[in-house]
Design brief:
By secondary structure, the chain is α/β, with parallel strands linked by helices. The protein is 43% helix and 23% strand. Helix 1 crosses helix 4. The longest helix is centred in the first third of the chain and has 28 residues.
Length: 264
């Protein structure tokens, strides 16, 4: 059955007039008549009893009215779902610089989807938390467990931290300190006496560059250090007290809700 014929039937039943229905639908009266006749032919029943003064549903028409009304509702709902599926969706994600390499695989389906646009913002954990609170990003990825009200989160993953340095350096090379979140900072306060804390760094790319240049050793997520270790440029050092695993938090605004669900 043609959806337009069903809609025409429902409107005639409501207005009790072929003329009014034609005006509302902006079609000719003959089009309304043709649609009703086609519907009656398909169903094998007479839907309306017509006189010069009125148009009323037949008993069969009254019986089938609820079914055709539901059919129209389902048709409209189907169109809404189809439109939503075809609609171009835009997402904005925020993360610290060093988190991106460890979460990009999760985002790859969105990055390659034709109907989706993605904007990636980079900042410190405190920046990402602020963006989420202000609704500037849909989803954030940080090392810091959110304590602010209005932010929800899950632990996306836990990464092992390894102590690395350039192969040319001795074991007692200066230590390059970078904060990997509260848990790491708390651990480091206890372990600091075993390190010569030479340089404090707050940017992942700079930390990589300093290690590359043989200016010291540092802790890095094993996933990020692996390419350099595999190539033999860096080497891994043992330490008597290993730091806690690095938690990666997937965060979102409680008011807006998680737009994608947990990746893990």
């Amino acid at each position: 059955m043609n959806p337009e014929s069903i809609r025409t039937f429902l409107l005639v039943a409501e207005t009790q007039s072929f003329t009014k229905t034609a005006d509302v639908m902006r079609v000719t009266q003959s089009t309304v008549t043709s649609r009703i006749q086609t519907l009656e032919k398909e169903l094998g029943i007479t839907l309306f009893a017509r006189t010069k003064r009125s148009v009323e549903l037949t008993e069969a028409g009254r019986s089938i009215y609820p079914l055709l009304a539901e059919s129209e509702r389902l048709w409209d709902k189907s169109r809404e779902i189809a439109a939503a599926a075809n609609r171009h969706t835009r997402y904005t994600f925020g993360a610290t610089h060093s988190v991106w390499p460890m979460v990009v695989d999760c985002l790859q389906p969105l990055l390659t989807a034709e109907s989706t646009s993605v904007e990636c913002k980079t900042g410190h954990s405190i920046d990402v938390l602020d963006w989420v609170k202000k609704g500037l990003v849909d989803l954030g990825f940080v090392y810091v467990e959110p304590e602010e009200q209005g932010i929800e989160y899950v632990i996306l993953d836990r990464k092992k931290l390894v102590l690395v340095q350039h192969v040319s350096l001795p074991d007692d090379a200066p230590f390059l300190y970078n904060s990997w979140g509260y848990e790491f900072d708390s651990w480091f306060e206890q372990a600091a006496e075993t390190f010569d804390k030479k340089v404090v760094v707050d940017q992942y790319a700079l930390l990589i560059e300093l290690v590359h240049r043989g200016l010291g050793k540092t802790y890095l997520p094993e996933d990020l250090a692996r390419p350099y270790l595999t190539q033999g440029i860096w080497r891994k050092l043992a330490h008597s007290d290993e730091p806690p695993p690095l938690a990666i938090y997937q965060i979102w605004s409680a008011a807006a809700g998680d737009p994608l669900g947990r990746f893990a």
